[in-house]
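pasting for ref. prot 1 ->
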Amino acid sequence: MSQTPPIIGLTTYGRYEQHVTGNGYYDQYYAIPADYVDAVRHAGGVPILLPPGEPSWKRWLDVTDGIVIIGGCDVNPSHYGGDPSHPSLTKLDSERDKTELALAQYLAQEEQQPTLCICRGFQVLNIALGGRLHEHIPDIRERDIHRNEQGFWTIQEINSTPESALAQAMGQSQAHTFSGHHQAVETVAAGLNITAVAPDGIIEALELSDHPWLVAVQWHPEKSAKTDPSQQNLFNTLVQQAKNT
């Protein structure tokens, strides 16, 4: 067991995914919301950023003790047999898709570092292991409870399986979470277990049964980590698991 603070790698947005205002000198950025970094630091981890497009991405795992695959843009539906021309898709990023799908598959099947997958990361994991998505929740539900009317954050209830790693980490089986997604799991990949659902039946968390600690959530725990201990506890548990490896 390591006595030094574990290094936690966090994936980033793609180079064109987010417009960053400022000095006007650059038009490409690898960015990440500060909330993720803050949550890892508060948990006692040392965050480092993992930008997509790295051809030698496996070298990341030589220096990291745990991984967070963060939220962001939609995965191209071509990766799961969906409709790449669906009118409700966000900006797509092939560079990010390629890196994160490979990383998620490797973490699930080979390296098995403690891993927390968030929103897009939740979807990336499912796709990487052979699952499918619904491109747009309003296609399958009359009412979308996962975003507000403007398409941004809403507070949503989730209920998790009490014996799951998720519930054990949160310290409770029910939570009210920040949600902002418009896609949902259609088919769960083999080996993944459903461990939380929303009131409308949409799958909200998955765990890999044959893995020391791999938890994937469809919501954004980093958004409320500063004020909700159950959500900070997800990062605390990730860091503790990384210390124990």
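and prot 2 ->
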Amino acid sequence: MVLPPVPASKPSAVNVPDPSEVQSSVTLSQELEMNRFSPDYYPLQLGNHVLGGGFYATRLYRDLRQKAGYVYNVDVSLHASETRANYSLQYGCDPENIFKARTLAEGELRAMREFDVTPSELQQAKALLLRQIPLAEASEDAVASGMIARSRIGLPLDEPFRAADRYFGMTAGEVRSAFAKYVDPSSMVQIVRGPAPK
């Protein structure tokens, strides 16, 4: 079933009490006014690999965990379909660090909107993404599943190869422009599951 488009999200906060949890699971989420066919999908994905995906080598993991010690884990993701797109950042932390970690994370998202990533960050993100493309289809089942998924939403069957070319030639300016256009930390919905925030 193809879901209809939805408007951009507005800022809000929801707490889901779970006294069985020792730490809080935090999701910052934003509905984007774009879909999987937007040309900005690719620079957003590349920027995500500057922010996360490479553990200590990426901005969020380094700043929120390694330096500040606020979180146990942190991840960022972009999910897009033929009609919708959702951008989210998730982390796990002690309740007293929810706001501190969010402040740092929002600072990194604003930096992606305002400044070009460094040449070394761009090269590393490209290497991570380009390495994932063949690994994602390293078996017959994976190849078949990928082709079926692409055909269902109308993407070219060779989309991974087209994406590789796109990522390879992408510039830091394209990444900054896509983040400035779509990712707004002030518009995110915050969902916290676990102990009550302090």
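The longest strand covers residues 71-80.
Strands lie at 12-17, 24-32, 71-80, 85-93, 189-194.
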